[in-house]
Amino acid sequence: MGYTLPAVLSVPAVVAVELCWLRTGLFRRPGYWISMVIVVAFQVLADGWLTKLSAPIVRYEPDQLTGLRFPFDIPVEDYLFGFSLVTLTLLLWLRGRKTT
């Protein structure tokens, strides 16, 4: 499960960065949660096309994943990394705005 562990650990790590260090208040903003819904919607479309088992463009080593895929054969680990990458980017963007 070489992909699963970092994916799972990335979520609490990013949450900890916000709650313990950056403290931007991002998680309290409705706009953040609306943007995450939009991100996930487009992630389902793009990732569903890229990882569909019937004709994959992106292939994962099966022993590196949990094997859970939803919907359209998307590995659940992709959602965890997606959350972490988008959230950390927004957090750093907000932090950068405060320092300039």
Q: What count of structural domains?
A: 1
In terms of quaternary structure, what is this? Answer: single chain
H-E order:
HHH
Task: List how many beta strands DSSP finds.
Answer: 0
Give the structural class. Answer: mainly alpha
- The value of Rg in angstroms is 15 Å
Unreliable segments of 5+ consecutive residues: none
Q: Which percent range fits the helix content?
A: 55-70%
Biggest sheet architecture: none
| Shape call | elongated
Average the pLDDT over all residues and give the rounded result. 94
Number of helices: 3
How large a portion of the residues is in β-strands, by DSSP E?
Answer: under 5%
Distance between the termini: 41 Å
Domain Lycopene cyclase: 14-92
Keywords: Carotenoid biosynthesis, Isomerase, Membrane, Transmembrane, Transmembrane helix
Main location: membrane
Protein name: Lycopene cyclase domain-containing protein
Give a short overview:
Pfam families: Lycopene_cyc. The chain has helices at residues 4-22, 30-51, 76-99. With 100 residues, it is mostly helical.
Give an account of the 3D structure:
There is one protein chain. Helix content is 65%, strand content 0%. By secondary structure, it is an all-alpha fold. Helix 1 runs parallel beside helix 3 (76-99) and helix 2 packs across helix 3. The model has no long low-confidence stretch (mean pLDDT 94). The chain crosses the membrane at residues 32-50, 79-96. One of its GO terms (biological process) is carotenoid biosynthetic process.
